[in-house]
Amino acid sequence: MGKLLHISASPRDDASESLRIAQVFTDAYRETHPGDEVEHWDLWDGTLPDFAVGAKAKMTVFGGGEPQDSEAAAWAAARRTFERFDAADRLLFSVPMWNASVPYVLKQFVDVVSQPGWIFSVDPATGYGHLLAGRGKRVAVVYTSAVWGPALGPEFGSDFQSTFFNDWLRWTGLTDISEIPFHPTLAGDYEEARRAADAQARDIAKGF
């Protein structure tokens, strides 16, 4: 039995297009993968640990030491977060665009789980090692925006949303990535873009 983990970065509940499209995806996934577990992880639910002390623990580990006391507790909390993420072989992220990039809670998630020995290694000669590679994990990402669109000029903003997040996924070793974009323009193609995103979500989910 497989597991799909939906990690959502929108706090807007029923008003969120990224969450709505993700629901289309998970509904189609359940229909075609009836034996699989589907879990929803709302990054706004307060379970993400603060990483101020964890950052100190990270540097302790980098230096070959063992975190102690408050650092040890922060490191353990980060490890639990990573293990929840790592337990799924199928990952769905719903990512709205905030100020040309991703919501800060998603960046917090990235910073908490991106640790040496878990996500990456470093070699002085060859650089980074990508520790999630070669494990058969697949990723789908719903990218939404309200103003920016790929066909629009720079006066409508820039995309540091998919560029940042796709780069992070590849850096971890997760390279089997399917994108589901929803970027309706202000010209009135909202319903057409919505139908296209929903159809793409269903198609990807069925073969996921």
Automatic annotation (TrEMBL):
The keyword Transcription does not apply. It catalyses: 2 a quinone + NADH + H(+) = 2 a 1,4-benzosemiquinone + NAD(+); N,N-dimethyl-1,4-phenylenediamine + anthranilate + 2 NAD(+) = 2-(4-dimethylaminophenyl)diazenylbenzoate + 2 NADH + 2 H(+). Residues 3-201 form the Flavodoxin-like fold domain. Its cofactor is FMN. Binds 1 FMN per subunit. Its EC number is 1.6.5.-, 1.7.1.17. FMN binds at S10, S16, E17, S18. Coiled coil: none annotated. Pfam families: Flavodoxin_2. Belongs to the azoreductase type 1 family. Homodimer. PANTHER family: FMN-DEPENDENT NADH-AZOREDUCTASE 1 (PTHR43741), FMN-DEPENDENT NADH:QUINONE OXIDOREDUCTASE (PTHR43741:SF4). This is FMN dependent NADH:quinone oxidoreductase. It comes from Actinoallomurus oryzae. The lineage of its organism: Bacteria, Bacillati, Actinomycetota, Actinomycetes, Streptosporangiales.
